[in-house]
Write a structure and sequence with these properties.
By secondary structure, the protein is of the alpha/beta class. It is 47% helix and 12% strand. It has ten helices and six strands. It has helices at 2-6, 30-43, 61-64, 66-73, 108-122, 129-139, 141-172, 179-183, 195-205, 225-237; strands spanning 13-17, 46-51, 78-83, 96-101, 188-190, 214-216. The strands form two sheets. Strands 1-2-3-4 form a four-stranded mixed sheet, covered by helices on one side. Helix 2 links the parallel strand 1 (13-17) and strand 2 (46-51). Helix 9 (195-205) packs across helix 10 (225-237). Bound molecules: 2-acetamido-2-deoxy-beta-D-glucopyranose (2 copies). One 2-acetamido-2-deoxy-beta-D-glucopyranose is lined by residues 194-197. Belongs to the class-I pyridoxal-phosphate-dependent aminotransferase family.
Length: 251
Amino acid sequence: MLADLDEAPPGAVIILHACAHNPTGIDPTQEQWTELANLLEKKKLFPLFDSAYQGFASGDPDRDAWAVRYFVQRGFELFTCQSFAKNFGLYCERAGNLTVVQKHGATKAAVHSQMTLLIRGQYSNPPAYGARIVSKVLNTPELRKEWMQSIQTMSSRIREMRKALRDKLVALGTPGNWDHIVNQIGMFSYTGLNESQVRVLINDFHIYLLRTGRINMCGLNTGNIEYVAKAIHAAVTGAGATASCPCDNKL
Ligand SMILES: *[C@@H]1O[C@H](CO)[C@@H](O)[C@H](O)[C@H]1NC(C)=O
Ligand SMILES: *[C@@H]1O[C@H](CO)[C@@H](O)[C@H](O)[C@H]1NC(C)=O
């Protein structure tokens, strides 16, 4: 990543995922963020943070905002696009927030007028209801507390499923190392399964995932994890169609 960014021309906008990287589930460590900041500073690159999962990664919105705050504290000018689609369950309401961090008050009017032009040309008026829900929840102490508990529940459930899947694959003796499933964070996991193994999961077991091997951890629950682990085992060991399939399809 550093080598690639080192090739970028000065002024290039670099999109960074604030937390719970999609699609890999691999977030930089704080030391790695520091190195990224050093490089962006040196090369005069412009960070744009895409923050779509705040609170969903660690369960703590402050902790998940660490990278953004760190860059601001280092004196970067930047944009942060926050989405509330996932952490507020508002997928269809287009609820988000753009934060523009500038060093000089003097450029404020210029940025504002550019934003106004873009907005006017693109959507003119944003949908209001989702944003009102977010605002109401975050500005009402009891609701805010309930929301904090909800994202804690959601993120710890995902972490439990990661652990359960890793443990089951280890117990089954599935060839390979599965620690990455627990080391990755957020909704997604790069399983490391290749395209032919993915095809086995889809065709023989009706488990749907991307060709890259990316799975959405939210789809796992205590009722299906055993089935998924056995299917992955079958896909990796080439046992494919012979493994028992509770969905009773003709393999
Ligand atoms: C939206 O961004 C502004 C700054 O641009 C900030 O003051 C406000 O708290 C943000 N709202 C939310 C819900 O994060
Ligand atoms: C996937 O991995 C298996 C096991 O290593 C291998 O036999 C197969 O050829 C691979 N398929 C692709 C598309 O790389």
